[in-house]
Amino acid sequence: MRRSGYGGSTEAISDGRCLIECTMSDKYRIVLAEEDFSPEECVFIRQLAGYDENCPSPGAELRRCLNDYLVFQNDYICAAKRIRTELEILELDYRIRYDHRIIRAIDGRTKSVKSICTKLQEKQKPLTLASASENLTDIAGIRVICPYISDIYEIENRLLAQDSISLIRRSDYICHPKPSGYRSLHLIVGTTLHSAGKTSRIPVEIQLRTVAMDSWAGLEHKLKYKNPLGVSDDVSTELSECAAVIAQTDERMQRIYNSLFGKEK
Ligand code: 0O2
User: Fold this and answer.
1) CA of 258 to the centre of ligand 1 (A)
2) Mutation test of ligand 1: which of 138, 170, 208 has the most ligand atoms closer than 8 Å to its C-beta?
3) Which of 55, 116, 160, 200 has the most CB atoms at less than 10 Å from its CB?
């Protein structure tokens, strides 16, 4: 096995495994060998990138698949990074200008290759990278946690005022909670990337919630939303009632905040 320096050349090894170096920056310098992915993930990557079983050079073909996948994924990493930076700038501006911490936390993830495939299968869409780009809008996801409900809409307005960010879809689960009791503002925004001579608008899902909504969603996610065994109607009702109590508390806290600080911004 031979590895070049930081220039990013790659070398397949004889038993069909391979190593890839990405050359973006130190942070994104990724060295991947097949064993970095579970065997299951490797199957998904091969499927998504259209692995050619008849290719006379399996190592090189796997390397191509991994490389195609990493190039695909990198667009989403970059798009999320840009949105995150805008959010951090906004947070700083509010802290300095108004002495208000409009954002308590920002969390982010890119969807795993397994989740991408599962979602495509659920939507009965082809398992290809092109299909993932076309049919999924949450490959890059950012969660923003705010103190007050009004902060959520303030952030929305400020973000969408940016030339580099456009709204693709908006779901207001605060005004219209899900039957489960789930509350958040979901924005699918697009941001334009220019790379390798082409321009593309990459979607990023932003979930904006209060601290209280987030604590409920975090617990319910495990208890019910992602529980493969499901829960009884009684538990569902109780969870939904908890969400309603939390929503009332958020509204009361908002009223207290407004009464003390008014509309300064
Ligand atoms: P995960 O593991 O959290 O990422 P789409 O996902 O865009 O194809 P849709 O219906 O537009 O479909 O998405 P939706 O319902 O607007 O938002 C999906 C995400 O919101 C979910 O992602 C969850 O993160 C969150 N969410 C939606 N409903 C609930 C709920 O009842 N409880 C909790 N805790 N979270 C919820 P994923 O990919 O489904 O899951």
Assistant:
1) 31
2) 138
3) 116
Residues 44 and 120: beta-carbon distance below 8 Å:
no
Residue nearest (by alpha carbon) to ligand 1 atom 27 = 182
| Pair 175, 92 in one domain | yes
CATH of the domain at 117: 3.30.460.10
pLDDT at res. 263: 62
Q: Are 20 and 31 in contact (CB under 8 A)?
A: yes
Mean pLDDT of the chain: 86
Asked whether residue 167 falls in the same domain as residue 122, the answer is yes
Question: Which atom of ligand 1 approaches the CA of 186 most closely?
Answer: 16
Per-residue pLDDT, 29: 33
Question: Residues 109-132: pLDDT tens digits?
Answer: 999 999 999 999 999 999 999 999
Q: 115 by DSSP, 3-state: which?
A: helix
Residue 37 sits in which domain range?
A: 11-69
CA dihedral for 119, 125, 129, 132, sign (positive or negative): negative
Name 80's Cβ contacts closer than 8 Å, sequence gap at least 6: 108, 110, 140, 141, 142, 204
Centre of ligand 1 from the C-alpha of residue 198, in Å: 31
| Ligand 1 center from residue 156 Cα (angstroms) | 19
Give 38-92 pLDDT, tens digit per residue.
777 888 898 999 988 888 887 788 888 888 998 999 999 999 999 999 999 999 9
